[in-house]
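hey m, so remember when u said the tokens were messed up on ur end? i reran from scratch. heres the input so u can diff it against urs
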Amino acid sequence: MQHAPILRAYLETPMLENARAGSFNFLNILREAVEDAGWRVEWRKTGEAARLAAPARRGYALYHMEAPTHERALTFRRAYHYPFWSIEPVAQRWRFHVAETEFAPDAVDPEEARAFAAKLRGRVLPGPPPTQGDRVLVPLQGHIRRCRSFQSESPVEMVRAVARTGRPTLVTLHPNERYDDADHAALARITAEHPNVTIGGDTMAALRDCAFVVTQNSAVAFDGFLLGKPAVLFAQSDFHHIALNVAQIGTEEALARAAAHRPAFERYLFWFLRVMAVNATAPDARQQVLAAMRRGGWPI
């Protein structure tokens, strides 16, 4: 093994500690797959210095939710829910393999998809059956006054567009984002002009009884699929296939069609997770890991 290709996985704490202790199932599967292929694995702490040094090191690098640093590097992240994972050559979710693959609902068995979605829903979103209310849920993310390259409009303009529909609208703030005084002022101006808009609340509680979700590309919309909630996207995303995309059909049409939009939610979830992602609990999980690495350009 001395001259075997080496894979350095750069991880943050506590994931690094769990990897070294062998208590992180997906990383155990990944290590076994790579070692069975004749490679060596090193668990390393990520950080600015480590990332700067990585391109000059021989071998291959793997990051968690960080951009690859060179052509021999890949990145991995959870595909929204355990035990599903993505291994990709880019960090932007809208450039992932699944995002660029066509979804064919007729290729998915409806009964198998229904059982899969019901089991996943019971595990990650337990509670009473969802209801179809009238309120629109708008879960905000960060940088709400900026329109970035992957967005059709800024989040504030997105909120304003929903407000103009006149529908009751709940806008929730991301708990891990920082909103400054200018952000709050921008939202306050909208609520002053549009009394149908409320700022703040329990996002996941509102998801269960909303009419539909409007977002840039928040994972809340993906969870909404589990509850049969349509989504309008104002940004590029990996789960764009069954959403109404503003960039494609325009803001007004997307919002007008949303309440009645009924795509193949369960078949899509089965395809996105069971077909396209790495399932760390599958009997062939190691083969799935290696296939994703090869698709990313590694000769393994």
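this time it looks ok to me. The chain has two domains: 6-79+277-296, 105-272. if urs says something different then somethings off w ur setup not the seq
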